[in-house]
Input
Amino acid sequence: MITRRGFISSLSAAAVVAPTLLIPSNRMGELVDRSLPMPRRSLSFYNIHTGESLNRCVYWIDGQYQPEPLAAIHNLFRDHRNNQEREIDPKLIDMLASLSHKLEAGHKPFHLVSGYRSPASNAMLHNASTGVARNSQHLYGRAADIFVEGYSLSQLQKAAKSLKAGGVGRYSQFVHVDTGRVRYWGMT
Output
């Protein structure tokens, strides 16, 4: 019979063996990268279309997502074509934090090319390009097209793929990451 203490010890041992493994960590079941610095997590962003930025936005404190910083992230990730906003998947935010940690980027901002896309914007882009999915993860707040100054797209793509946390696609000017099923496309 496994005791509660034995079960918790086995989880701790698993975290030591696989420190970058994304595992459920709280009562809401969000995926959290145990290798991320605790008890605070922060990210920096620069939206290339609006010129807005968030610097060292602390979105996680002592095991809890923080509503005000998350609202600021949702706003920054809004559809710049029509200012429509949607909640951004916390798993995507954690994925970006894991990616920043993996790159050892410190507080270098993610340059956001595209976050949330409204149905109208996505349809317009889909009709204009074969590279835009009709049912894109951007529609659901589960995707970001990004780059980080000082890192090649190849480095960013490789680091994102190593997380095995969702979709990763490389394009000529950015890397797409999402929290959908694990899959890869684009330049390798």
Observations:
- Helices lie at 4-17, 67-76, 90-103, 119-128, 153-163.
